[in-house]
Design goal:
disordered N terminus, 5-stranded mixed β-sheet, 2 domains, 60s Ribosomal Protein L30, Chain: A, 304 residues, 11 strands, Alpha/beta knot, alpha/beta
Length: 304
């Protein structure tokens, strides 16, 4: 009998040394160990394990719906993928509604500050993260945010130049222009209906955090013209037949319209108050929309 009790105590001691306390997935969790297997690391006091989410949970499909404009409008939310965008949002004072992370992502991402702020954090398998992502190599981190409440009128009510994307359909160009608008001090960006959606995943990625800090909204052409007239803002279109912007200048309260690379602003904007062009050699093709818009924004900031 004594031999059996001693053997039981020895087994309990061995179990404790191995970290097997009857809680699988906690002390054996690979996140608590060095990446090269160099022995256990001290667990952060604030760390915790996120709630595992079934692949069939309705939240998964709800997040997938945010990849479409209709889904975003219906939910009043949008998704942003990757640690960089999540950190940019936090730096901008924007809190996500919920987070979806993979086990691998947790190795390089501390969710404790979000859980401390009562942000639901869901642990999802890699295959689910791939369903939520629109990129070839998912990051394993997807955050859901509320759509901002800005509308065209509130954007135009802010002082300074407002950028108008008049038919810009490429999401990469649109997101880059949002970055440039912030960099050069624009009051906001208006996305013309029918072009890129301001909160499409590719636009959000290309904006690199500026989407969290700059006022943006979608607008119809006639709505834009009416609001610009009501606020006494001249609509200045970038056009190859326009005047040299270095000569005529750009009004400090202008609505700067940048159009599609191939068709310019003409297919989207029926009229404008003034047209300007970027002086360039005649032998070159028209500039990429993101490049042209960035140059015009820089010029507007330089002369104001």
């Amino acid at each position: 009998m004594q031999h059996r009790l001693r053997a039981d105590r020895d087994q309990e001691r061995d179990d404790e040394e191995q970290g097997d306390l009857g809680e699988p997935g906690v002390l054996h969790d690979p996140r608590l160990f060095g990446r090269k297997g160099g022995g256990p690391q001290r667990q952060r006091e604030t760390a915790s394990v996120p709630t595992p989410l079934s692949p069939h949970n309705p939240r998964i499909e709800a997040v997938r719906d945010l990849r479409t404009p209709r889904g975003r409008r219906a939910a009043g939310r949008f998704a942003a993928e990757g640690l960089t965008l999540l950190e940019e949002a936090r730096r901008s004072g924007i809190q996500p509604r919920e987070l979806f992370v993979t086990d691998a992502a947790l190795a390089r991402f501390d969710v404790a500050p979000y859980e401390a702020d009562d942000v639901p954090v869901h642990l999802v398998p890699d295959r689910v993260a791939a369903r939520l992502s629109d990129v070839e190599t998912p990051s394993g981190v997807v955050a859901v945010f509320d759509l901002p409440a800005d509308d065209p009128a509130t954007v135009l009510a802010r002082p300074g130049v407002v950028l108008l994307l008049a038919g810009v359909g490429d999401p990469g160009n649109a997101g880059t222009l949002v970055r440039s608008a912030e960099a050069f001090g624009a009051a906001g960006v208006l996305f013309g209906r029918g072009g890129a959606d301001p909160f499409a995943p590719k636009v959000v990625r290309a904006a690199m955090g500026s989407i969290f800090r700059l006022a943006v909204a979608s607008v119809e052409a006639e709505q834009l013209l009416a609001l610009a007239a009501a606020t006494e803002r001249p609509v200045v279109a970038t056009d190859l037949d326009g005047e040299d912007m270095a000569v005529v200048g750009i009004p400090a309260n202008a609505v700067l319209a940048v159009g599609n690379e191939r068709r310019g602003v003409r297919d989207w904007l029926p009229r404008w108050d003034r047209a300007i062009r970027i002086p360039q050699r005649e032998t070159t093709e028209s500039l990429n929309a993101a490049v042209a818009g960035s140059i015009v924004l820089y010029e507007a900031a330089r002369v104001k």
